[in-house]
Q: What sequence folds into this?
């Protein structure tokens, strides 16, 4: 095993620098720039032969140093100490396990013995059930025969089959029979092993109900014998079309009853999952008769095209807040404002073979409440077939102090998207 260090910005600092390590960085999560603004050296920790993942190909050009971890934990730790690293964060869900192991070696807040609770759906369900916190019925296994045996005794009408590891980019498969489970099993297990190194999958009771995403920050215990401090920063509600396609994600008012209920449940979850420091993102479902239920948790920051609008509306700095949990907080760190701005993320979904019309896209960008538009599919490139009849081709972020203005623009965008008016017909290149 070997560890190599690449200096991508020679001569940037003299002597031992103040540095922070980002493990398995995702280019869409711009930790390097956020650290540069604090005059802190950003060190990327990567592993060789990383499998494909939802982020674009890892680009560490913005990092002052890149350390390639090839399995020798002691060597990687010595390299980090030599660079003056005194903070470690997972740059993506793929980096959670290694980040905690490295943090523990550097005597930073971490608990490698329980790290699966913070990145494995099956372990999360088990830990919460043991703590008498309600969760959907969940089974974790890597054996098809065991999964089928559980299915036969469950008497459930339907289950979702998905990887246990939250880092695996695979959509859940709805199964209503043993045959459907067996059909989806092999490919799902192969994908799980490729992206996480483990073939463990879960079967979960398929529950109706609206989905939510809760973001939080955990600061280390302020003194020996004290507990870490968990703070819920923002809560988002997901809305789907009749055929189950994500249509929009709304920022909920912080002091609303629903947001408070979801936040209180999340705080209990974070305690049981053993969060010691850093950001987390929890996906929940709300069942009227049971209340909030955890679907998955990931001990890594989740960024989106709406982050700039979120900061304008509330003062929440997604990456700045994450860094504040492991570094000395900035003197200018922004507290939550009482601004009454609303933020909505609108998902654009296209049928197979169509292309985004540049002219219509320009008109969409000009709408009064549109503050950002991300093209997941460049204009002129045809949408591809997915497991659904439609695939995501872009996201539009709306923000405004008046909900009526947002709703008017949202309905226009939805009509344009659903009618196909945003797209041109066209086959593959």
A:
């Amino acid at each position: 095993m070997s560890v190599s260090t690449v200096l991508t910005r020679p001569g940037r600092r003299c002597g031992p620098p103040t540095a922070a390590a980002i493990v398995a960085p995702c280019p869409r999560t711009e930790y390097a720039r956020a650290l540069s603004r604090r005059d802190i050296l950003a060190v990327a920790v990567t592993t060789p032969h990383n499998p494909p993942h939802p982020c674009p190909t890892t680009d560490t050009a913005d990092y002052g140093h890149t350390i390639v971890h090839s399995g020798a934990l002691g060597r990687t730790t010595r390299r980090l100490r030599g660079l003056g690293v005194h903070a470690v964060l997972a740059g993506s869900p793929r980096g959670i396990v290694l980040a905690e192991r490295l943090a523990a070696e550097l005597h930073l807040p971490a608990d490698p013995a329980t790290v699966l609770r913070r990145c494995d759906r099956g372990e999360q369900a088990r830990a919460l059930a043991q703590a008498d916190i309600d969760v959907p019925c969940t089974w974790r296994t890597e054996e098809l025969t065991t999964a089928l045996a559980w299915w036969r005794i469950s008497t459930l009408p339907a289950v979702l089959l998905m990887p246990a590891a939250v880092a695996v980019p695979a959509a859940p498969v709805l199964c209503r029979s043993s045959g459907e489970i067996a059909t989806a099993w092999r490919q799902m297990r192969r994908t799980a092993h490729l992206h996480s190194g483990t073939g463990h999958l879960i079967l979960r009771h398929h529950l109706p109900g609206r989905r939510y995403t809760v973001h939080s920050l955990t600061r280390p215990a302020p003194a020996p014998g004290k507990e870490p401090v968990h703070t819920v920063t923002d809560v988002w509600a997901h809305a789907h079309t009749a055929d189950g396609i994500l249509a929009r994600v709304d920022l909920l008012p912080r002091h609303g009853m629903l947001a408070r209920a979801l936040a209180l449940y999340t705080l209990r979850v974070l305690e049981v999952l053993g969060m010691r420091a850093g950001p987390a993102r929890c996906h929940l479902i709300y069942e009227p008769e049971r209340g909030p239920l955890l679907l998955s948790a990931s001990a890594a920051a989740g960024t989106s095209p709406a982050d700039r609008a979120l900061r304008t509306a509330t003062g929440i700095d997604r990456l700045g807040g994450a860094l504040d949990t492991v570094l000395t907080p900035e003197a200018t760190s922004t507290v939550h404002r009482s601004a009454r701005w609303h933020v909505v993320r609108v998902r654009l979904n296209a049928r197979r073979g169509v292309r985004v019309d540049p002219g219509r896209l320009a008109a969409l960008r000009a709408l009064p409440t549109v503050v950002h538009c991300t093209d997941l599919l460049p204009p002129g490139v045809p949408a591809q077939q997915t497991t659904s009849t439609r695939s995501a081709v872009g996201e539009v972020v709306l923000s405004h102090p008046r909900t009526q203005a947002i709703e008017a623009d949202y309905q226009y965008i939805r009509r344009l998207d659903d009618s196909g008016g945003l797209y041109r017909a066209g086959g593959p290149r």
User: Anything to note?
Assistant: Residues 1-17, 376-388 have pLDDT under 50 and may be disordered. DSSP finds eleven helices and 19 strands in the chain. Residues 178-196 form the longest helix (19 residues). Residues 77 and 105 are 7 Å apart (CA to CA).
